[in-house]
Design brief:
Blueprint: H1 16-25, E1 33-36, H2 45-55, E2 59-64, H3 66-77, E3 81-86, H4 92-105, E4 109-114, H5 128-131, H6 134-155, E5 159-169, H7 182-201, E6 207-213, H8 227-237, H9 246-257, E7 268-271
Parallel strand pairs: 1-2, 1-4, 2-3, 4-5, 5-6, 6-7
Helix pairs in contact: 1-2, 2-9, 4-6, 6-7
């Protein structure tokens, strides 16, 4: 199972010393308890978000999937983690166990970062109509979209009024991006799920939003054919005439989880240097 991670430009992360110092002094996330899913390595979107949260004073827990990922994730996150839990989001019993284990560490959860997406590699190569098998469709929507619903349901008993959920999406949910294929369909389902969850969890004062980031070079993104060409087009056509840096996505996530965003829910926040506003 891949994670929905993308890579940072140099300097996008706070240094360990700076993070510790700012955490000690408090910050936008001071006192918050955050579960971060989807870290693959130190150049993941999820890791950049977690690193920023730590710098802003949050307590952190992480999930990963399987021993293969554990070798990369555990050494990275352990210095700042209260818990590191093995969780395959395609398995309901794993999700339920994750909620139980987390409840043994914390009596509440303030923040859930959902940064998980996957489609079988052959489904991202070739034409959508030819490459999308029934199984690829099932897997992509299960892992990339349903997992948000399943995690929200399992973790809701830990979430108090004022808690918040943020997931990661991409412009391919709205417009055709060559070779994004079934992932575009899965991201569209994910964005619809954000709206439904925001509506139903809103009376409990739990907010649900998504960040739609521009293309950033990451482990998962490199599975998309001609991904380098996509980044080149963005850099030429965005109003800012550049690609987005990972630190900018982390800043947006920090804002969405802070009290400054307490009136925002059900939104897809575009962090793509303005690409989505351009035409021909």
């Amino acid at each position: 199972m891949a994670v929905d991670d993308q890579a940072a430009a140099p300097g996008a992360h706070a240094s360990e010393g700076a993070a510790s110092d700012r955490a000690g002094r408090g910050g936008l996330m001071a006192g918050k308890r955050a579960l971060v899913t989807g870290v693959a390595n130190d150049r993941s979107i999820a890791w950049a978000i977690a690193d920023r949260f730590h710098a802003e004073g949050a307590e952190l827990a992480f999930t990963y999937q399987g021993e293969g990922m554990a070798r990369h994730v555990r050494p990275l996150v352990s210095p700042i983690a209260r818990a590191v839990i093995d969780c395959d989001v395609a398995r309901d019993d794993d999700i339920d166990r994750t909620a139980r284990e987390l409840s043994q560490v914390w009596d509440r959860l303030d923040v859930l970062v959902h940064s998980i997406a996957y489609a079988p590699r052959p489904a991202l190569d070739g034409r959508f109509v030819d490459a999308t098998s029934r199984e690829a469709w099932r897997v992509a929507l299960d892992v990339s979209a349903y997992s948000l619903v399943a995690l929200a349901r399992a973790l809701k008993p830990l979430m108090r009024p004022g808690s918040s959920i943020v997931t990661l999406t991409y412009y391919g949910a709205e417009k055709v991006v060559t070779h994004y294929n079934v992932m575009g369909v899965a991201k569209a389902a994910l964005e619809a799920s954000v709206r439904y969850l925001a509506s139903e969890l809103g009376p409990d004062n739990i907010r649900v939003n998504a960040i739609s980031a521009g293309p950033i070079k990451t482990l998962a993104a490199m599975g998309i054919k001609d991904f380098s060409s996509i980044r080149e087009v963005y850099s030429l056509r965005t109003p800012l005439r550049r690609n987005v840096e990972l630190g900018e996505v982390a800043d947006t996530a920090t804002f969405l989880f802070s009290a400054a965003a307490r009136g925002i829910t059900g939104e897809i926040v575009m962090v793509d240097a303005g690409y989505h506003v351009t035409g021909m």
